[in-house]
Amino acid sequence: MTKRSPETLAEFVEAVADTGSVANAARKVGISISSAWSWMAQSRQGQSGFDLEYMGQSMPLHEAVKQAQRVVGATILDNFQLRLLKGTQEVSRYQGKTVFKRDPKLDLLSDQDLTDLAITTRYLLDDEGNPIPEVIHHEPPVAAVISFLQATYPKTWGHKIEVSNRSTAASGVQVVPRMKPAAAINAPAEPPVDVEPKDLTDILGPDDESVPATIELEVTPAPEPGPSAEAVEPGAESASPAEPEPPSESLKPLSALQLDLMARLAQRSNATKPAPVMVSSGRIEADDLDPRRNGAGTPPKGAVKVV
Fold first, then answer.
1. From start to end of 20-92, where are the E strands?
2. CATH 1.10.10 domain residues, the chain
């Protein structure tokens, strides 16, 4: 790590002016970034040992760094003005490879002609013998040029806002005569129009047609309710129920289909379902009704009887 010295401080400030960054300047000089910021903080506090010569003046480190950053801003402005003046140059590339300038005088010669003339390349070379790359020129953007002129010369190129106070209306108070209300206009009375009735013969028919006969409806009075049943004293015998009235003759007889359905319903309601009968399966271990599985019996062959 480089020790602090007036020469190191001067190199650090020059590196800030060249790179435009404190971190890049510290790496270029060979000191850590934390040390560079620590030196500037100590210089700002007024500690001794941080004075240096910069731009022909003796000043502390933090002031010299500020001057170097102003130089960076001025350099950026100069480069921007140069771009607005002459545009930019871009190296031509094709599929990621640089395109070099060809010598137009050699385009009409074949490879054998170049060999006979001892010419080794068809491209133009600079003074050092390197091929010259093809360059594409870009004109400066018009919007950037106008913005720069407006900021530099606001009176000539700045936005102008004109406020016109001219008015074509006459000044003063204008007297308007009072308007009289318009007289009411009565609409002329029109005589009533005598409208003759339309001929409705096609709808109502001729007058000499007979009036249709009226339809007489026979209304049967509702039967009067019978006497209400009297309360029966406890212990008294209940009166025998009244016999149902015979059906009136107006009821229609049942059809054959209805009679058949009623007969089937009567048979289904009176039918009794027989109980299921259990049949022996023939296997002792699967038959619960086999007497050999119930109660005492003879043990099978090979079994042991436990008493």
1. 51-54, 57-60, 88-91
2. 6-85
Q: Under CATH, to which class is 6-85 assigned?
A: mainly alpha
Structure-token pair, residue 288: 């619960």
- Which stretch of DSSP H or E encloses residue 93? strand 93-94
Residue pair 100/133 in contact (Cβ under 8 Å)? The answer is yes
Q: Dig out the tokens for 95 from the structure.
A: 């599929």
By the 8 A CB rule, do 64 and 25 touch? no
Are 91 and 135 in contact by the 8 Å Cβ rule? The answer is yes
Q: Which helix (H) or strand (E) holds 137?
A: strand 135-138
Which residues, 6 or more positions from 54, have their beta carbon under 8 angstroms from its beta carbon? 10, 13, 64, 67, 68
288 exposed, middle or buried (CB, 10 Å; 0-12, 13-18, 19+)?
exposed
pTM for the whole structure: 0.43
> Which value, to the nearest 10 degrees, does the dihedral of the CA atoms of residues 211, 216, 217, 218 take?
180
The per-residue pLDDT for range 253-302, each reduced to its tens digit, is: 888 888 888 888 887 755 566 555 566 666 666 666 666 665 555 666 67
